[in-house]
Amino acid sequence: MTGDYLTLNQEAVQTVSFDVVFNLHRDYVYGLVHALVGNTQDAEDVTQDVFLRVYKSLHSYDSERAAIRTWLTRVAVNACHTHKRRNFFRNLWQRLPDGNDEGQDFIDPSSWGAPEDHALQNEMRRIVQETLGKLRLEHRTVLVLHYYLDLSCPEIAGILECPEGTIYSRLHYARRLVQAQLSAAHKS
What we know:
Elements: H1 2-37, H2 40-57, H3 68-86, H4 88-93, H5 115-134, H6 137-148, H7 153-160, H8 164-187
């Protein structure tokens, strides 16, 4: 009887801990995943996968190795990589003909701006989405973590578990590609 009570009690503690982690970090994880995978449907699926992974492995989380947000970021990035690998061919064949992927909110158009401003912002959003969509996942991941989440290169290296120099290299390469695409779009 005591062993059953102890097991039940540990499960209850894990459930409460998971609920706390989920409630505090679900918006952060969803925002990160959405920025990495590029559309709402996939972001919802991957976010669900992330929290399933968190539920299964929360007992192994070690707060001395990393902050909870760093650990969650690593889990989310890994889930995005897994999702991209699993769905490569599906995504290749099911791309929308007009390239519209439900509009990510990289630029928030103000409702007080002129129609010309809205048109320019929408065009810029489309160009940025296309450009990010053309990047390999490791380059897009570094850009999103650095610019969207404002993480430093050493932090990103810790999350992705790769050398800091690799992060700097990926960031440099990704910025060059984005800059070239934006320059080409501006000229046309």
